[in-house]
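Internal ticket #5521
Category: modeling
Description: The requester needs a full-assembly model to guide mutagenesis choices. All entity lines are attached below as received. Residue total reported by intake: 912.
Assigned to: D.W.
Attached entities:
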Amino acid sequence: MATTATKMEKIVALCRRRGFIFQSSEIYGGINGFWDYGPMGVELKRNIKDAWWHDCVRNPPVGPDGREVQMVGVDCSIIMNPKVWEASGHATGFADPMIDCKTEGCKGRFRADQIGDVPCPLKPSKHPGQFDKCQLTEARQFNLMFESHAGAIADEANKVWLRPETAQGIFANFKNVCDSTRVKIPFGIAQIGKAFRNEINPRNFTFRSREFEQMEIEFFCHDKDSMMWWEFWRDTRINWYQNLGLASDHLRPRNQTDKELAHYSKACTDIEYMFPFSDEPQELEGVAHRGCFDLNAHKEKSGKDLSYFDDETKERFLPTVIEPSAGADRATLAFICEAYTEDPSRPSPELMKFHPRLAPIKAAVFPLVNKDGMPEIGEAIFRELKKHYPVQYDPKASIGKRYARMDEAGTPFCLTIDGQSKEDGTVTVRDRDTGAQSRIDKTRCLEFLREKMGAS
Amino acid sequence: MATTATKMEKIVALCRRRGFIFQSSEIYGGINGFWDYGPMGVELKRNIKDAWWHDCVRNPPVGPDGREVQMVGVDCSIIMNPKVWEASGHATGFADPMIDCKTEGCKGRFRADQIGDVPCPLKPSKHPGQFDKCQLTEARQFNLMFESHAGAIADEANKVWLRPETAQGIFANFKNVCDSTRVKIPFGIAQIGKAFRNEINPRNFTFRSREFEQMEIEFFCHDKDSMMWWEFWRDTRINWYQNLGLASDHLRPRNQTDKELAHYSKACTDIEYMFPFSDEPQELEGVAHRGCFDLNAHKEKSGKDLSYFDDETKERFLPTVIEPSAGADRATLAFICEAYTEDPSRPSPELMKFHPRLAPIKAAVFPLVNKDGMPEIGEAIFRELKKHYPVQYDPKASIGKRYARMDEAGTPFCLTIDGQSKEDGTVTVRDRDTGAQSRIDKTRCLEFLREKMGAS
């Protein structure tokens, strides 16, 4: 236990020292459950969200039917008409009395009416209803959504909530999307955006935050094909994390048991990851079969016809929904934890092995010495590259120190201009992970990065 | 007046019909002051934000001192420690009684204590304090920030606000950024994110919304250089809008008068734009000289030393701040209004002339007829392009109808595979704005788009 805790502490310290993640409002003592991304963190998180948008919306894999998968995006407001949350069940179903466990290593929060059914996460009492080793609080009523008021007077009539998930914005726009585009079932609608949950018990760095960002897809299909699409999205999403660098043995897809499944759901896989802060895998994303529960709820509440008419079969039906719902902050934290590498033999004993697509800085350009025509070549390369990618130019300090700094920031490639560069027009490319160097022509630097970056 | 109103109505209708912008929660009757971006709108707004991030953070122009401009980003939480808003003055200074004008064509909202000093926007009574032609409400107390509570119990102790601007997150992180990066003054910190204002009187489509997104820069410099940097950012930002397509005669930079300027400010230019909904130019962005007002306020309130130490001059000082503060939704609306073009002589009487960098769809690929080997060539081109850019493939309907559909969505290029394609391997490229066609080799499509897209 001591060593895993230490590794997480080192990661948190590096995140602060190198500008990945800061406590929100740190100069005022912070605020529990809220975090800020610094200069490195904002680029990393942008890259993760952009990779998701590119790989899921703009260029998804070919579908299980051998055809292009149709995807479009939306970007909905955080504050919506409160009836949305009455329809979804969040306004009522979630307002349950909660019990906290104060035991060190557990600190779970449970619905009071489920305390007999759920296992306590604290070992060894890992059996439903066995809380004899836990310090439990009294049941307390929580405001599960953040509540506010829109307009001059704060009364019931203008009460609003901050959305607790981005999904409902997609369902509420299902008809608008069908009417304004030429998508035909099967198709998906994607959204990236902030959501807020007040019942969250903040802990484990950014993993449990009260404000967080989601990357959600609602994929609408015919019920008869729904298990095929559920399998497609489950596999697609697992592959996505692996392709961007999460080791397969750290990723633990887990099928929900029949008891865990919502009553309307046929299947759900939680894609879990082995974070250093726990011996148990923790959820990154859920890929859920949601039946037609949500569209039906909005149809009932709004009185609007949300059914879909199939031109070819002349059939009218409420589509079945597959929902891959990912956390952008959790994905960011997972990629940070996976990238974090200790190697005492290197000038930088800590390095971040980010995939090139995710790395905040794609390349650094160094003149070996800051004279003899090397800076001129270096600056020209830098100015060309920065039109296309985030890159840095650094003419000072020893070359070893400059490499070390870039290793710690996770920069995959360092391009160095040396004596030979003036003679044959080549520069060295140093690979972050192996330290190996090769030479490429100075006119090929952009092409080199493009190849390494793959799709984008 | 009738024609301008009609043009705006047509734009609003096209935005809904083609999936640019929907009313939030439309199936529940909407919610005043909140809007959703549909499949086209989300791509357009993403492109605008990405262009801003690229042009301001990753690849800003060379500075007025002839050197690279140093820029980094942050991404802060929407809910911060409430002391941030006490320091900034938002918690106290903004909570003023407001008076609404109910007159058609005005509908302004004014601070009750300033009603004698401000002009009524309704012509012809455009003189300070002359409200004799207006229907004014009683003064009402507004909740100017959206208020909420973090945690189980909603009391004063856990009151929080939704940020009314992204700027304060930057100031609160100034020291963290200095400590975690190697930026030296002059440098800037940029942020894109949502903000919320409750006193907003929603009107003019998305122009005045209660939830909106900002793109803000706080540029920290030495006071002696501050006017030079203010001019640099003012010109850089005006050029940015022009380079992306806003006509120079629709852009109206306006220097604030001495009376308008905040007491700590030496200069401020409002970059205004002639929207079709008004005869008066409306603010897109403010480029303000803010002195060291904000850092000083946080220094006082937090008790933390936020001064900067200059290694070279050995001087310690609070930096002066230049703030280019833009609205992402307002920029999106301006680019939509500018792009909107009526041309009854074309198959699509309405078309959207978006700059290629901003267009939601960069290119469409059409086989002239859906047989004779044309679909195979078209699909191959489509599959190659979609790895890099949002593109669409459409094999059906008459070619004129397909062009028209793309014109309305603002797609700059249509690539058509015709009989000649099989013989010489070329395809036609049709230019949206001129309708002119030329031929390029089918292997050059990606290169062609890259050239047209410029930086990205």
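Resolution: model delivered.
Comment from assignee: Chain B touches chain A through 88 residues (CB under 8 Å).
Ticket closed.
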